[in-house]
Amino acid sequence: MADHESLQVPHSGIKEELVRILKEEGYISSYKVNQNGKFKEISVLLKYDNEGEPAIKKLQRVSRPGRRIYVRKDGIPVVLGGLGINILSTSKGLMTGKKAREMSIGGEILCEIY
Fold first, then answer.
1. CATH number, span 57-114
2. pLDDT digit string (tens) for 38-84?
3. 43 closest CA partner among 17, 15, 9
4. Alpha-helix runs per DSSP H in 25-86
5. Alpha-carbon gap, residue 59 to 80, rounded angstroms
6. Domain spanning 1-55, CATH class
7. Full-model pTM
């Protein structure tokens, strides 16, 4: 939202999987895991169109530590009529809502992106 070209975040397994999904879905240009001393960090190159509009219009956290949101396989919501994605934490790892519906598994809705 601040029109930066890139960002760095501290590394964790869930953050790396989240960035991998964003790359697969076309919301970011690329990412790389860097070793910075004894700590790892993830460098993310954000994606913009020709007019300078960001690919990610809105990223909203759904499930929070104080209020976890879990859904069954048939209760996974569709974001913006299918134009956006939601990311779920399932027993098979992090995946988009569409992939979770195909695999018939539910989980915790982490965020919605469009």
1. 3.30.1490.10
2. 999 999 999 999 998 999 999 999 999 999 999 999 999 999 988 99
3. 9
4. none
5. 13
6. alpha beta
7. 0.87
